[in-house]
Design a protein that fits this description.
two-stranded antiparallel sheet, 150 residues, single chain, 5% strand, elongated, mainly alpha
Length: 150
């Protein structure tokens, strides 16, 4: 089953944009994200529409953050991407005629709706600044281990 990695990709891109000295072009960033510039631009378009990133055309243009990392939550990014469900579980038939399948669909749909609400609520409490700080802690810990084992 193929997983939707857009949220992970978008978070990765946003963290890199936060460390860039200026706007970054799609042609520069897309290969680093192992995608092509068109897919990269399509992903960032939703983030631009949500006011998370901005794009500037012309010489010296490119993508940059429109807000600080502490003003962007994981839920903001999730919503901007238009992800329809965080899970790859679905109904065999969206409009079954069988009453038993209808009951199964209601049970699955209700459980998924509850889990998604919890998922989004948790993501509202995590900012990109916290994610970047976590990366910094891991890097410092990794560096200390490398120095003590050298």
């Amino acid at each position: 089953m193929r997983r939707d990695s857009r949220l992970s990709v978008a978070l990765h891109v946003l963290l890199h944009l936060s460390e860039a000295p200026g706007p970054v072009t799609s042609e520069f960033m897309a290969p680093r994200m192992k995608t092509n510039p068109v897919v990269f631009r399509r992903t960032l378009a939703g983030l631009r529409d949500a006011g998370i990133v901005r794009s500037e055309k012309g010489h010296g243009g490119g993508w940059s953050l429109a807000r600080t990392l502490d003003a962007i939550t994981l839920a903001d990014v999730y919503a901007a991407l238009g992800v329809t469900s965080p899970f790859n579980i679905g109904h065999r038939n969206a409009k079954p005629t069988c009453l038993l399948e209808q009951a199964a669909n209601r049970a699955i749909g209700g459980a998924l709706a509850e889990v998604e609400a919890l998922f989004v609520a948790r993501m509202r409490g995590i900012t990109l600044a916290e994610v970047l700080a976590d990366a910094g802690r891991k890097a410092r810990r990794h560096h200390r281990k490398a120095v003590t084992h050298a």
